[in-house]
Amino acid sequence: MSVELRMRFSRGLHMGFLIAGIVGPATMVMAWFQWHAERRIDQDDLDRRARLLVFQLKESAQDALRHPDREAAKELAGQLEGHSRLIGFAVFRAGGNKVASGKGLSQYMVEIQPVVAEALGDKSEAIGTIRSHDTVVHALATRLTDAQGATRGVIVAVHDVAHLEERATARMIRYAFWSLAVTFMLFALVTGVTWLVYDRPLKDLAEWMRRLRTDNAPDAPPWNLPVALLAKETEHLAASFRAARSSAAADSNGVLADHKHWTRERLRAQALDCLDGGQLVVVSNREPYMHQLNDGEPCLIVPAGGLVTALDPVLQACGGIWVAHGAGDADRQTADAQGNLSVPPGDGRYTLRRVWITREEEQGYYYGLSNEGMWPLCHLAHERPTFRASDWELYVEVNRRFAAAVLEEIGASGATVLVQDYHLALVPQMLKQARPDLRVGVFWHIPWPNPEAFRICPWRTEILNGILGADLVGFHLQQYCNNFLDTVDRMLEARLDWDHFAVELGGHSTLVRPFPISVESWTERRIPTGDALTQQIARFRERYKLSQGQILLGVDRIDYTKGLPERFRAFGRFLEKHPRHRGKVSFVQLGAPSRTHLRRYRDLIVELESLADEINWKFQTDNWMPIRFLVEHHDAATVHAFMQMASVCVVSSLHDGMNLVAKEFVIAKPKCDGVLVLSEFAGAARELPDALIINPYDTEQFADAIRCAVEMDADERTARMHRMRQSVEERNVYWWAASFLTELCGTRISDSRAKPQ
Ligand code: G6P
């Protein structure tokens, strides 16, 4: 017998004993009750029978008792003998003297006396079961009376009942035996079925997973998994596992894997290689350079937000065209007749093509569908999305306008188009329909929610179809890729290839991949350094009375997803809990007003101002103000100077695709003298585990993290910051763009439509 079989046998034996230990006593108790019930029924039958027999003899006995004993005995002679189980009758006078009895009764005369006495006493009838002479007898005694009701004597019928007990006991044993046998058979059946349905498939699954780890597993999981959901989840798990392994393999083997830092030059070379003579076109809603009128003069602004921060350096490195909405009120006068201008102004590295849209279109497409619909739909920050059919119509129309502008810029040449974000979800499909030969990638800068959250969107199918026009769809995190594929799986009739993280729809294949976006180093931006920086810092310290103590910093667009009220409250709580830090720690919030045409955003500014005011009122002194809330557009130089001044940067997003402020702070600290407090709900938290990770909804924990950051010793600060810097430097924005372009240019443009028309 094999060891495995012996183990199974002994496990079965143990289980058998266990069951017998529980079921055995229970069955015995039930059998005992059964025995008693049957005895009761037999007893009742016998009582009835004895009563009937006595009744038949009663009259003769009453008559006989009118005579003296000898005559009475003679009269009754022959009537008192028993037959079969009836042993016989006996008749007694009222005084208890026997008058006559059947022959078989002589040996029981003493034993039946109590029954006779009972029938002569209070009751007119008495019944008793008597054990005697190795047998058991049943005696029923009935009182005999005369016409006036006076007691004359007693008649007793006696039966042998030993056989009844034997029969009931035999039945009890049979019952117990069959109950136990049936229970064991049922148990064996259930165990067998369970083994077939669960145990074996789960063992197969475990074996398959073990082989998956070692790369020898067949592609599909075992077919016979008992629960459909488990089978599906297993498939997803395996796909993620394979994807993680293949991306790790790509990272360690591929062109992007070496540990030489990615620079502008290196990206340019890589892009030239990928683009193979074609143009690079970026298309987004937000433009990288905006002209606003200031005192009647056009004034240049670099809009706040991660998209511009990340993509401008890429275009500066690679050259190309950036197609975007011309939203500034001086944009028309600073561009040519086609809406083109060379940027950055004064150092033309690429072309900005401005797209013009009307106020009404901006209202429906940008403020309405994009920022009141899609933005809260994708950010799980408890803000309810609003969907209006009129906004959707304008969204489709403006997407068409952007697609047309891209096609116009490309002309007849080949190109690689990078479509950016949720404003332009339909553009990939529109481009591919017009020019199947184009390589089209989409990068989604915000989270992708789970299918349950996304399905409330009335135009979910159109949006998914629009995005899937692309050859490559990029998200910051693997989790967003999984959510996206799950959404497609539930909402479209598409074929999902979980092994390669691809979707096939109408003969077109789209890869879905994570590309965590990043930043360029501060030294590559035009910001003051050296003395100029020192002077700028001194000016800020003086203007905002920040000469003493530590500075905590927040840098955000004023958006409800950024967790700004939570941040202010946590800082207030920190001051409340730790009075020793009052007067020594100040919080500076640089807040860029954003989407202020929407009431929700305007209300947020008011809420934050009053919250800051409340906290300041509570704690401020003559020469210290706890919170400086600076609401205006801050240029890169200002942000950088504040990052230099701050010892702690706080990022408390309620939900955020990545959050580049976290990474900007890390690379703003070459001396590693800073602490990052970072929300677990920002994508950046996956790459920066050395930050102090917080849940912004948990005010106490958040306040404690602020204390921990403020009090952290220099060695720990340096060690943590050093590791974070290494990670951001290695995976900077050039690495991000190179990865995206390399993957996109490696995609197969295979469908039948992929020929220039
Ligand atoms: C986020 C979005 C970007 C957007 C930015 C600024 O980062 O992902 O697409 O450009 O916010 O928002 P705004 O509405 O001003 O363009």
Helix fraction?
A: 40-55%
Could you report the average pLDDT, rounded to the nearest whole number?
A: 91
Assembly status: single chain
**Lateral arrangement of strands in the main beta sheet:** 10-11-9-6-12-13-14-17-16-15
Features:
single chain, 757 residues, alpha/beta, Beta-Lactamase, Rossmann fold, 6-stranded parallel β-sheet, 22 helices, 49% helix, elongated, disordered C terminus, binds 6-O-phosphono-alpha-D-glucopyranose
Descriptive report:
With 757 residues, this protein is of the alpha/beta class. It folds into 3 domains: 3-167, 2-Layer Sandwich (Beta-Lactamase), CATH 3.30.450; 264-514, Rossmann fold; 527-731, 3-Layer(aba) Sandwich (Rossmann fold), CATH 3.40.50.2000. The protein contains 22 helices and 23 strands. The strands form 4 sheets. Strands 10-11-9-6-12-13-14-17-16-15 form a 10-stranded mixed β-sheet, with helices on both faces. Strands 20-19-18-21-22-23 form a 6-stranded parallel β-sheet, with helices on both faces. The protein has a 5-stranded antiparallel β-sheet with strand order 2-1-5-4-3, with helices on both faces. Helix 10 (389-410) packs across helix 11. Residues 286, 303, 305-307, 421, 445-446, 557, 594-595 line the site of 6-O-phosphono-alpha-D-glucopyranose (G6P).
